[in-house]
Specification:
It is a single chain. The protein is built from 11 helices and 11 strands. Helices cover 43% and strands 19% of the residues. The protein has a 7-stranded mixed beta sheet with strand order 5-4-3-6-9-11-10, with helices on both faces. By secondary structure, the chain is α/β, with parallel strands linked by helices.
């Protein structure tokens, strides 16, 4: 009976910790985080966890769960704790210093894949991070040539790890979009895709602590005085390197959609399509000449 009481006390602890997460997560998110940690250490699914509520839990498992929850209370993202994330049906490694892939970016990948590029399509992902866009596109469209760039050494290292982990064939280079080798301006692409930094510094006050304290600022934020700096450079690069029938796909801020559309039309893109995400927010753009 004592052991069962200890287990019941642990369940109370988990619920209490979930409530303590509520200032930074919704009630549903808080419960999901706690359940994910519990499932991780018990090595069971959520469905199995529900069926195991009255079973005994080993002390070592409880200790590991408590340790993870201590990190959660320091606002460490659950993805960094777990060390992996599911993205478009593939498992990817994630590490501190590299941006955690978002569900909205999955929607961008799916949108590109829906266009069903012809055999031999050359695709470039600029700012690849974990490699999530490039690797998932390669899985969905195995016939394409897929190349991925990032300026950060940590991102290049992790993208290479994920390439090996997924056994998907993509090419990865360390590149700075604002200081590219001359030869890169002469290569041609059918599709260029990017999820660049676009959150204004002034928006930090509205963001969660788990993002501000743990995720790389350089992958998220831009100065208020130049909020479209990456989009301007991406447009300039795409204008020079896309084939005439090529496409530029971008993830954008919901607060900058009209500004980005105007910029792209000014730069010479005649067809600019805005797409909403699952939440009804304008978050993606497809542009053609």
């Amino acid at each position: 009976m004592a052991e069962r009481n200890e287990y019941q006390e642990m369940l109370v602890l988990l619920k209490t910790l979930a409530r303590r997460l509520s200032p930074f997560y919704t009630e549903r998110e808080s419960l999901e985080i706690v359940e994910r940690i519990f499932c991780r250490h018990l090595k069971v699914s959520k469905a199995c966890l529900f069926c195991m509520q009255r079973e005994e839990v080993e002390t070592d498992v409880l200790r590991n769960v408590q340790e993870d929850l201590r990190w959660v209370l320091k606002y460490k993202p659950i993805q960094y704790i777990e060390g992996e994330v599911s993205f478009c049906g593939i498992e990817l490694k994630v590490k501190e210093g590299v941006l955690i892939p978002r569900p909205e970016t999955e929607e961008l990948v799916e949108w590109i894949a829906e266009q069903n590029p012809h055999k031999g399509t050359r695709v470039l992902d600029i700012g690849t991070g974990t490699g999530c866009i490039a690797l998932s596109l390669k899985k969905l469209l195995p016939q394409i040539y897929m190349e991925a760039w990032d300026i950060a050494e940590d991102s290049i290292k992790l993208a290479n790890e994920n390439r090996a982990f997924t056994n998907l064939s993509i090419v990865i280079y360390q590149r700075d979009l604002f200081s590219l080798p001359k030869e890169e301006w002469g290569r041609k692409w059918d599709i260029i895709v990017s999820n660049p930094p676009y959150i204004c510094e002034s928006e930090k006050k509205n963001m969660r602590a788990n993002v501000l304290l743990w995720e790389p600022a350089k992958a998220l934020f831009v100065e208020d005085k130049e909020p479209l700096i990456f989009y301007k450079q991406l447009c300039e690069f795409a204008l020079k390197t896309l084939h005439r029938e090529g496409s530029l796909f971008l993830e954008i801020s919901e607060f900058q959609s009209q500004e980005v559309i105007s910029l792209m039309k000014e730069k010479g893109f005649s067809k600019v399509i805005l797409k909403e995400d699952m939440h009804g927010k304008p978050r993606m753009i497809w542009a053609k000449f």
